[in-house]
Amino acid sequence: MGTTARLLMLVAVPVALASCAALRAAPEPLRQPPEAQADPEYLVDKATRDKYDNANGPEEKKSVRNEIIDERLLEADTQFERYEIALWQQGVGAGIGTDWVQLAISGATATAGGATTKSVLGAVNAFITGAKASFDKNAFFEKTLPAVVAQMVAEQEKVRASIALKKQSPVSDYSLYAALADVKRFIGAGTIPGAIQAIAVDAGEKKAKATAELDSVLVVTAVPAALQARRENAANFVKTLKQNQLDELAKSLGLAPGTKAQVEILRTIAGAQTTPAFDRFAQKLKILFGKEV
Amino acid sequence: MAPNNTTTVETPGTQTLVGFQDTVQQQEGIFGPLDALGKKDENNTITLEIGPAPKNRAVLETYEGDNPPEKTGFDHVCKGDCLVDGQPAKVAAYRKA
After folding, report:
1. Is the pLDDT of residue A163 over 80?
2. N- to C-terminal Cα distance for chain B?
3. What ipTM was reported for this prediction?
4. If exposure means fewest CB atoms within 10 Å of the residue's CB, which of A165, A214, B59, B81 is most exposed?
5. Do B30 and A217 count as a contact with CB atoms less than 8 A apart?
6. pLDDT by residue (tens digit) across A88-107?
7. Edge-first strand listing for the sheet containing B43-49
């Protein structure tokens, strides 16, 4: 194999591998419950399911179910935050990698002896430059990807609003397994395929609609005194924030910045009716303002 | 439509008066003073002004007739047709003067 062919393979193989994915006509057949429930994708372990199954009466079951939902949503939010950071890091890394390949080939073009080799190297360089023009950080990581991520967040908020509504239902109408199916829907909404599915609709409008839906159905009940003390501490702190700080906090919570930011943030606090749910909010205050609540 | 400086939350109408009052008091601690009470479908509505939490939280009492009675040492805050234990009830809110 000549130098030219090897050079082309070096470029072509990773491109081909990257674009190749297994394609199946349908998902795998359903597994039997014992096998399926042992799968981490089932979202909860046996001990958690036992806690739900062994709860005394519908009210306790409902309470356990809602705690499980809140905990799983918190975990999904945590993983999504990590995913967002990883996407950003990948964007930067891909840009640097492409730049290095391009620089190396440009150098080889300048120093290679044969006219044919120079010509092929130049063509490869042009290919990579062209590919970079199509997929580089300017086009994808700085424009397309943020839009896709915004769509993910919008879709997630829609599902979150729907779950918040269903949490008011008794377990006879909304079982733990139905709730877990919704949590899976929430997780799916926070994926690139999930976002692409809904990308045609404007993300801003959808999020505003979902937030409004959540806003209109905020149903609250009394929480334990210790949690309430933390919520009031957080609310008092939020009321001291300036508009730019409120906007920053609102954006970190997936809320719209602007004149309604403060009330929407306070509603988020009021909606945090379990410790795990409030911890998620408290984490934002700590990260953004160093405030412990 | 509520003005920008108020917000409304809902709470289940199946609660006892004590549970309803606890919820109102906690929401005052988050948003600010109670502004209005009412009901929507099977829930009670609690409308609150956005501002500092009141030092003395609202207390709720049910009443009969058109107007709530005076309560010694307390100011009347608001009244509303609500649900208590799932049943329609007239509820008045007072705050210690």
Report:
1. yes
2. 30
3. 0.94
4. B81
5. no
6. 776 644 443 444 444 444 44
7. B6-12, B43-49, B34-40
